[in-house]
Amino acid sequence: MSSDNALLRLGGSTADAVRDVLEMFAPGQVNPGVVAVVPAGTHPLADIQLPAILADVSFVDGVSGGNVMVMSVAGARRLAAVMMGGTGDDLPPADDLDELEYSAIGEAMNQMMAAAAMATSAVLDEEVEIAPPQVRLVRTIEEALENADHNGQATTVNFSVGGAPCTLVQFVPNAFIVRMTRAFDEITAEYAGEVPLSDSLLGVSVRVWAELGRARMPTGQLINMPPGSLVELDREADAPIDLYADGMRIATGRLLVTADGGYSVRIEALVAGADTPSGAGGNTFNTNHPVEV
Amino acid sequence: MARVLVVDDAAFMRKMVTDALTGGGHEIVGEAGNGAEAVLRYQELRPDVMTLDITMPEKDGIAALQEIIALEPSAKVIMCSALGQESKVLESIKLGAKDFVVKPFQPDRVRAAVEKALAA
């Protein structure tokens, strides 16, 4: 796997984790964008609009590097208001966040990165812990770049939460990319043996499944659910569903019932960075059988 | 209705827990922002139930739980954990915590945990 693909996979799993946590705070109000690798020689914070709120979380133990969520002051206040059950529509103007708003943004970042660290831990097969979040107002580019040494590579993904735009920047040291690439290749080797992935991709059978929606609940609640319990999923009935291949989200589409009474998924869009070889539009996957990709 | 002490280093999380529990008819008798303060407030207030964050500065929730259980073995403590803290949650249950909630949580889940702890 190339380092760019490893970066996109890492960025994608982080974006999924962030989306899931934000959905808990602001149900139905989270719109994630596409993960992009920042071009070499470009600092991802160099062009941010100022003033801005920066929420930093570093990985500790196991992994170095970290994540920065960048928001406008108005956007951060709107997110904090949405997290507290409001709409953020009627906030009086302000140049900075108040104490409760700082706390809300810090807690959102903390929980998002805890979820992202779990996803990274699963790939590396080792525990990844995070440091406490630091949330600060920056008015100059010098302040923004403080403590943001960028010697490796980076990914960005834009989100909109309750109408508030924000950008997640993930700083990834080169040594970590090597470890991620190796870990992904080891996972792939279970299917491809010693043959390079690019040569054998088209002949590998992978497990493909469709996901209708998700729910999160404590294990204690889960194991105590009697028959007849309802588990509410996080997706509207008319929303597209997700298609996964061996744990990676590869596409979104619509669930169809076939003439013989089975289910199929009509692909509507492929997910960027999913390494899929063909274009979208009209492909149909039958979820009952392995699919050759 | 329970008298509840809410402990979390994040003011936002204290507000979330407070709003969830007062919405369920419970009374918040006090708040604390770290483990050391939590032990002092527990001794002072003797609440029916306490919600206790795990990761906090000065003294974490596990250390505070140990001291509170030593003071009052039947204390009804609900741990608040982040994702990925399963080993710490298990440790706290072994130490005597009555239940746990994982952040981010829905208000109903916090209320259910308090009601379960009260009934225990």
- Most extensive protein-chain contact, per-chain counts: A-B, 27 and 22 residues
Strand order of the largest sheet of chain B: 2-1-3-4-5
Most strands sheet of chain A: 8 strands, antiparallel
pLDDT averaged over residues of chain A: 78
Taken in chain order, the helices and strands of chain A follow as HEEEEHHEEHEEHHEEHEEEEE
Oligomer: heterodimer
* Beta strand % of chain B: 15-25%
**What structural class do the secondary elements of chain B suggest?**
alpha/beta
End-to-end gap of chain A: 16 Å
Question: What share of residues of chain A is helical?
Answer: 25-40%
Characterize the overall form of chain B. Answer: globular
**If you average the pLDDT of chain B, what whole number results?**
93
Count of helical regions of chain A: 7
Low-confidence stretches of chain A: 274-282, 287-293
Largest sheet of chain B: 5 strands, parallel
Uncertain stretches of 5 or more adjacent residues of chain B: none
- What is the C-alpha radius of gyration of chain B, as a whole number of Å? 12 Å
Structural class of chain A: alpha+beta
- The beta-strand count of chain A equals 15
